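Protein Record: Sequence and Backbone Structure Tokens
======================================================

Structure line: whole-number tokens from a learned vocabulary of local backbone shapes, matched to residues.

Purpose: to set a sequence beside its fold so the mapping can be learned.

___
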Amino acid sequence: MYDIIIVGAGPAGLTAAIYARRASKKVLVLEAKSYGGQIINTLDIENYPVEPHISGFDFATRLYNQAKELEAEIKFEKVVDIKDNDTNKEVITNKSTYKTKTIILATGAENRKLGIENEDSLVGKGVSYCATCDGAFYKGKDVAVQGGGNTALEDALYLSDIAKTVYLIHRGNEFRGDTSIIEKLKKKDNVKFIYNSIVTKLNAKEKLESIEITDINKKTSTILVSGLFIAIGRVPENQNFSKIINLDESGYVIAKEDCNTNVAGIYVAGDNRVKEVRQLVTAVSDGAVAVKEAIKYINNN
């Protein structure tokens, strides 16, 4: 029997593990993929207090090591279901079933797809969702980035130092990301801005050769590129909990700043909950708050 099982080893989940272990609670962290979550794709974190310049991978690794040093138990298993019983709760993974007093859901969100033909089959063959992961493969080549937020802007900035030309494609007429990044991109001679357009077709034989874009007037054009980096947002990974946890119309867990869900003893932390601001600093804050609430529940029951 665990005191707290944390689903997800991103910043929110690992912070929760650190706070729980410091409170001497028996903790298990379950992660389906790798530790760190989406932050590992960030080349340079500039807005986190005390650490003005650190890569997402280094940040996540430090957080992971800190949790391990505090003897938090971490297993790489995919959670497929959770159950709320009278005397305890159960977390079912693809490998086993674990009993616990409380659960913290910190699953974050996954990359949103364009939903066009050949998108899945061309992943690793010209289509990518992580510029820092795959950008080096496109040195001296022409690439495109689809998106209008900070992730797309950061991807384009990173790729501008690697690729020959970067086409930054946005469906709107102005970007949603930080002005400081936009200004940096405007100073790059090899970055081309394309507004009011989306990628609607991927042309390839064995690998991506070009993309078709469609503008607001339904006019199509073709751009020769070797790589397309898709950065159009994320989808919360809460599908496996929808039978027991209340979600909003977009799939985010409904919870206020105290991180309580509709089920007593089950909490949510990080980007997978309804919130106004989804940043690294708010994710780690959620992790600490969720543990405080879980401990309060344990003590009262």
